[in-house]
Amino acid sequence: MEFETKYITPDIKLSEFKGKSFKTEVTFEHHMLIWFISGETKIIQAEETYTFRAGDIFLIPRNQLTTVISCPKDGLPHKSVAMHLTPEKLKDFYSRHKVKSSVQPIDKVYVFTKHPLLQSCFVSLIPYFDLGEDLPPDIADIKIEEAISIIRAIDKNIDGLLANFDEPGKISLKDFMERHYMFNMPLDRFSYLTGRSLATFRRDFQKIYHTTPQKWLTEKRLELAHYHIAEKQRKPNDVYFEVGFENLSHFSHAFKNHFGYPPNKLIIPSANS
After folding, report:
1. How many CB atoms lie within 10 A of CB 131?
2. 11-38: b or e for each residue (b if 16 or more CB lie within 10 Å)?
3. Looking at residue 197, which CATH number applies to its domain?
4. 3-class SS at 12?
5. 67 and 189 fall within a common domain
6. Which of 11, 104, 197, 260 could form a disulfide with 84 if both were Cys (CB 3.0 to 4.6 A apart)?
7. CA–CA distances in Å: residue 202 to residues 81, 199, 207, 222
8. What sign for the dihedral angle of Cα 177, 180, 182, 188?
9. How far apart are CA 178 and CA 176, in angstroms?
10. Are 1 and 19 in contact (CB under 8 A)?
11. Which helix H or strand E contains 120, and what residues bound it?
12. Are 223 and 206 in contact (CB under 8 A)?
């Protein structure tokens, strides 16, 4: 089996992948606290791209458009432990703990790499994945609470994120789409994250761009790909994932239809080729 997932509870899982690299585009419903055991993951968000390897620990905030590109590395599988910090568990935690900071949350990945307390918390989970029904029912809640307490000690401003339970409100559609068009998400996710119904999203989009969301998204992604290939001399095979296409064949076909030539034509031959 190429992909295997073990659960302590639905909120704590160990994932292992042994195939080629794979890509997923998500908006997590919950904050995701992740410990990376082996392999490599690239996290792409609107403002920044992160690369994580063995030993790295990081938190992906909820309701953020995120592209995740994961692959085995150095002969080892892509393996990680993920902990869901759900609103229910966080509300319970903060009903018993005072919020330390009212700082506004930052729309970014929070990195806690190689902090000994947090690393120890995750390492201690490993034996539990093989216990199944023999696991004491409250152990997962204890470990999640331990992890929350540790990251609050590491980052004094993390309460601004963890104790914020607001849902996305209506925001500027134009600003949001210009920052997030490369994420290949269903339109209903774009509409939700801009605080609109799908029908309102389509209507507002037409007023701003005078075209359909699907056509505009395709053209913006192709223009971004053209920039990466022509200006940065990146290979099409390394670009199409990041700009929002699902496979190289579809990307190449759409690129040629739009620009009149295939993406490989933009690659300047090196002196050694």
Report:
1. 11
2. bbbbbbbeeebebebebbebbbbbbbbb
3. 1.10.10.60
4. strand
5. no
6. 11
7. 38, 5, 9, 21
8. negative
9. 6
10. no
11. helix 116-123
12. no
Tens digits of residue pLDDT in 124-171: 998 888 776 566 768 888 999 999 999 999 998 899 899 988 877 888
The pair of structure tokens assigned to 122 is 């995750």
Helices (H), 194-247: 198-209, 213-232, 236-239
Nearest to 60 by CA among 205, 161, 154, 133: 161
Residue 217 falls inside a structural domain: yes
Number of domains the chain contains: 2
Residues 28 and 123 in one domain: yes
Question: Is beta strand 49-53 parallel, antiparallel or unpaired with respect to 22-26?
Answer: unpaired
Tokens 């849902």 sit at which residue? 167
In a domain, 32, yes or no: yes
CATH number, domain at 128? 2.60.120.810
Domain that holds residue 93: 3-162
For residues 30 and 148, give the distance between their C-alpha atoms in angstroms, rounded to a whole number: 13
Residue range 48-86, pLDDT digits in tens: 889 999 999 999 999 888 888 888 888 899 999 999 999
